[in-house]
Amino acid sequence: MKIIVTSIFVDDQEKALNFYCDTLGFIKKHDVPAGEFRWIALVSPENEQGTELILEPNNHPAAKEYQQKLFADGIPVTMFGVEDIQAEYERLLDKGVKFTMKPTSMGNVTVAVFDDTCGNHIQIIQQ
């Protein structure tokens, strides 16, 4: 068994698509109309056949509340791995990304957390 998709609730799919592709560098794999919303799947440019990230609309009240409570408490909704966290931190800062936690060493890993502008905190990690 393997993970083939995972999702992140977003408050604006178009804004999220722009941020995740233009700012973070993910590649759009699928963008299919689904009623009033879209099925948007992104992949890493380093593994285009790998796990897909779905930008899921938070229109359900439970999803919206879940997202808002995690954000208010500063809890990241997911984690992305990077090879060089300091370089990635500086690259994202140059693109205007707001970090809530600068790269911080925690034992054998270094982590940082940023605001994705769509209602989530995202953690990046260098192992």
UniProtKB/TrEMBL annotation:
Superkingdom of the source species: Bacteria
Domain VOC: 1-127
Residues annotated as signal peptide: none
PANTHER family xrefs: GLYOXALASE/BLEOMYCIN RESISTANCE PROTEIN/DIOXYGENASE, GLYOXALASE_BLEOMYCIN RESISTANCE PROTEIN_DIOXYGENASE
Protein name stated in the entry: VOC family protein
Source organism per UniProt: Ureibacillus endophyticus
